[in-house]
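Protocol step 4 of 6: structure prediction from sequence.
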Amino acid sequence: MSAGLPPLGSDRARAIVAAMPRTRLLVLGDVMLDQFIVGRVSRISPEAPVPVVAYERDDYRAGGAANVALNARALGATVDIVGLVGADAAADRLRELLSAAGVPANGLITDDTRRTTTKVRIVTTRNQQVARVDYEADDAASAAVVEALIDQTDRRLRDADVVVVSDYLKGLVTRQLMAAVVSAANARTIPVLVDPKIPHLDFYAGATLVTPNHFEAETATHMRIRSEDDAQRAAQLFRERARCDGVLITRGEHGMWLLCEGAEGHLPAAAREVSDVTGAGDTVVATLALACAAGATTAEAARLANHAAGIVVGKFGAATVTPPELLDGWRGR
């Protein structure tokens, strides 16, 4: 087993976070809108054994790749985003949420043959989820749309310090698009980080760092991960099969396992209290990317991302972390 990763001192952590506002991130991926229908539950329906939710309000948040962008923006970075939406009200609202956070939405390509991915959750005022309805079109983007996405990406890549690909299997990430992104980024020596989905595993060849969760790592490697030794072996197998440079396996309450050039080891979970894991992976990859762009080693970036994940799972829904939150109480983690 690896001896583990060195701690990150508070002065070094502060220097990295202080440099994040000088970085520029390009996010490419499946954007979505999260809608919460919030109400009170006081009885069970006489028609079926389900709760009756008395409506109080709607809440809207940016999800998927758009949540990655908002996480990076909350940490002070300049952010560009390229995504795919339909010609509908959900796309309009998503653009409003991005623009309100200071993320230009002009990189969103409209395809009027599909709908904007929207997740509608019915939740109680105590943040208990009752049901979820997904509106989506997950067929692969057409050749013409892929060309438009490549064009938008190439324009923004020229000014980027780091690229995040956020793959939710909603049709944007194709073999052609990934090959174009990795080739252009490598030519400019720009790191490419990928939050993956296993059906696209062979698309990510040449990526700098891929961040599968525990289940995705098990699926990709055909092995059960029950210990740090298992995680170490799974990371090695995953890197071989994805043909990427590095791997960060996120394992929930079991922490993370990092394998990259010059560093390998376990990071214990940093969560103090878990409220909602929605969007935690978005926070991890955004923090990783910005820390690397700010001059951190991959191991240092992983420590900051691990801490950010521990903060965000204590919040409800897709949420973000601010620099003061990230540094609060940091003592050589």
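Step 5 (inspection) to follow. The first strand starts at residue 24 and ends at 29.
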